[in-house]
Specification:
mainly alpha; single chain; 9 helices; about 270 residues; two-stranded antiparallel ribbon; about 5% strand
Length: about 270
C-alpha cells in the first residue's frame, strides 16, 4: 500500500508536469517528446561512431549523412503509418506535421528505413548489409528513448489496471476522472534496452554472416511490439481479428526476421562445410 501510494504521487507529478518541459515564447514550448527523440538520436550516433567497425565501412561525414537520411525516412514513415492507422488523432491537416507532440509509429519507422535506406547506401558505394547490421545494434536505444518520451507525453497509453505500479492518468475517463493504467511505454523502454544489450553483447560477437544482426533486430522488435500491444489501450482493431493492425505487422516482421536469420545461419554452415 505504501509502495503504491509513493508510485502514485511520483508518477502523477511526472504526468501532470512534464509533457512540456518549459515555455519559450507565446504558443511555443520545449516538448518532452521532442527532447526524448533528440536524446535517442544522440545515443544512436554516439554508439555507431564509437563502434570499431564503423571506420571499415564509412567516414564520419558519410555516417552523419546516412543517419540524417535515415532519420528523415524514419520520421516520414513513422508518421505516415500513424496517420493511416489512427486518423482520428488529427483534428486538422496541419496537425500531421506536429511530430514533436507525439504520434510516430515505431513499426512505420522500421519498415521505411529497412526498405529505403539500403538503396541510398548502394548509391553512395557504402557496404549495405554490414552498415545496416551496425546501425541495427543501436536503433533500440533510439526507440527506448522515444518510448520514454511517449510516457511523458501521455501517448501510447496502457489499459486500465490494478497492479501496484499502475500510473494515475487524468482526463482519459468519460468524465475526465483519474484512471490507473499499465505503464506500457516503460515496459517497452525496458524491453528495448534489453534488446540493445542482446544485440550488442550477445548476438553481435557470434554472428558469422552479414545480415544476421538486422534479421535478429527485426525479429526481436516485432516480438516486442506484438507482446506489448496486449497491454495497450490504443489498439487499432480491424479485419475482424482479435489482434491489432500493428500486431499483424509486428508478427510479420518477426517471421521475416526469424526466417532470414535461419537462412543466413544455414548458408554460413553450408559454406563452411
Amino acid at each position: 500500500m505504501i509502495y503504491s501510494s509513493i508510485c502514485e504521487l511520483f508518477l502523477s507529478e511526472i504526468i501532470d508536469m512534464y509533457p512540456q518541459l518549459f515555455h519559450i515564447y507565446g504558443p511555443f514550448y520545449v516538448q518532452s517528446y521532442g527532447v526524448a527523440i533528440c536524446v535517442g538520436l544522440a545515443l544512436l550516433l554516439f554508439g555507431v561512431i564509437h563502434n570499431p567497425l564503423a571506420k571499415r565501412y564509412f567516414s564520419r561525414e558519410q555516417l552523419l549523412d546516412v543517419l540524417s537520411r535515415g532519420i528523415l525516412l524514419g520520421v516520414i514513415g513513422g508518421r505516415l503509418l500513424h496517420v493511416l492507422s489512427e486518423p482520428q488523432e488529427y483534428a486538422s491537416f496541419w496537425d500531421i506535421f506536429k511530430v514533436w507532440e507525439g504520434g510516430l509509429s515505431s513499426l512505420g519507422v522500421v519498415i521505411t528505413v529497412a526498405c529505403c535506406l539500403p538503396w541510398y547506401l548502394y548509391k553512395r558505394n557504402i557496404p549495405v548489409v554490414p552498415t545496416m547490421d551496425l546501425i541495427a545494434m543501436y536503433v533500440p536505444l533510439l526507440a527506448m528513448s522515444i518510448r520514454i518520451g511517449c510516457f511523458l507525453a501521455g501517448c501510447c497509453y496502457g489499459k486500465i489496471s490494478q497492479v501496484a505500479w499502475a500510473i494515475p492518468v487524468y482526463g482519459h475517463g468519460a468524465a475526465g476522472e483519474c484512471l490507473y493504467l499499465h505503464p506500457v511505454q516503460l515496459y517497452s523502454a525496458c524491453l528495448l534496452f534489453g534488446l540493445f544489450l542482446l544485440l550488442r553483447y550477445v548476438i553481435a560477437p557470434r554472428v558469422k554472416v552479414p545480415g544476421q544482426l538486422i534479421c535478429a533486430y527485426l525479429a526481436c522488435t516485432g516480438f516486442e511490439r506484438f507482446f506489448i500491444d496486449f497491454w495497450r489501450a490504443d489498439q487499432v482493431i480491424a479485419w475482424g481479428i482479435p489482434v491489432s493492425i500493428h500486431q499483424v505487422i509486428a508478427f510479420s516482421l518477426m517471421c521475416v526476421g526469424i526466417l532470414g536469420y535461419l537462412v543466413l545461419a544455414y548458408r554460413a554452415r553450408f559454406v563452411a562445410s
